[in-house]
Amino acid sequence: MDSTSFNSKILLFGEYGIMHDSDALSIPYKRFNGFLAKSNNLTEDQKKSNRNIESLYEYMIQEEYLGDIINSNNLKEEIDSGLYFESNIPIGSGLGSSGALVSSIISRYSKVDLKSFSNAELKKIMSLIESKFHGNSSGFDPAVSYFNKPMLYSNQKIRPIEIIAFKDFKVYIIDSRIESSTKKMIKTFEDKMIDSEFRLFFNNKFITNTNQCIDHLINNPELFRNSIKELSNDTYNNFHEMIPNNIKNKWKEGIRNDSYYMKLCGSGGGGFFLAYDFDNQINSSFSEFNFFQI
């Protein structure tokens, strides 16, 4: 069978804000990827993946809109023949394991030529399918895996952009060694939005700063350091439920030393976190963690 591989993603900016029409910026990450495969003799992990895909199938056939797009009969036949998702993308890590799976399913089982869809239509389809896993998906993660290009979401539209240059700093993902649940974190965020003070902060300051970070990274790199520092500090002070205890001290240390600035990598709560390193401090500051430069 076609074993097209789909990469993980790293959401540089836009966590939570993308659900409220902030800008978002995400890039594919080739270190981790996955592809659909079949076997007549599934291992335990492959059986778990097979059941996961079957659960997704049962969810999709309940959505009438998807019936015209996904060949569910073909999908079910291959599930029964040992279909599974061969992947090294850590689950619950914030690197888009479900997005890569959704991209694989859409690519292989679409009844129609996907090129006939606009980016917005594809994002809608991907959002609907990925919501099975997260409860409320923007569809942005699968789009990054599907197009395998950096993607910008702005003014409610998505488009691929050129390779992003990291000038005068390095970007890392730091493994917290804690598994996260995106669905749980989204519920936590929705509960926080009930509070009027947090909602005011989020809709005004946080989204504005997120948009500034993206604009400065792409168009005005000399302004980027101040904007990412502000976003890091505001995230630390207002999203403490999404930052594990073993990361909090490191997060504050970067701001205090004015050397690196951390942020969520997706929904937070565990998995990977981002660090923007301006003074080559990551190797020494995170020696007890696994981390990767992107």
Quickly list its features.
294 residues; alpha+beta; Ribosomal Protein S5, domain 2; Alpha-Beta Plaits; 2 domains; 5-stranded antiparallel beta sheet
Structure description:
Strands 1, 2, 3, 4 and 5 form a five-stranded antiparallel beta sheet that branches. The protein is of the alpha+beta class. The chain has eleven helices and nine strands. It folds into two domains: 6-160, Ribosomal Protein S5, domain 2 (2-Layer Sandwich), CATH 3.30.230.10; 170-293, Alpha-Beta Plaits (2-Layer Sandwich), CATH 3.30.70. The longest helix is centred in the last third of the chain and has 24 residues, at 196-219. Helix 4 (97-109) packs across helix 6. It is globular and about 55 Å long.
Provide the fold topology.
Blueprint: E1 6-13, E2 24-38, H1 44-60, H2 64-67, H3 72-80, E3 83-87, H4 97-109, H5 119-134, H6 140-147, E4 151-154, E5 157-160, E6 170-175, H7 182-192, H8 196-219, H9 224-238, H10 245-257, E7 260-264, E8 272-277, H11 282-285, E9 291-293
Helix pairs in contact: 1-3, 4-5, 4-6, 8-9, 9-10
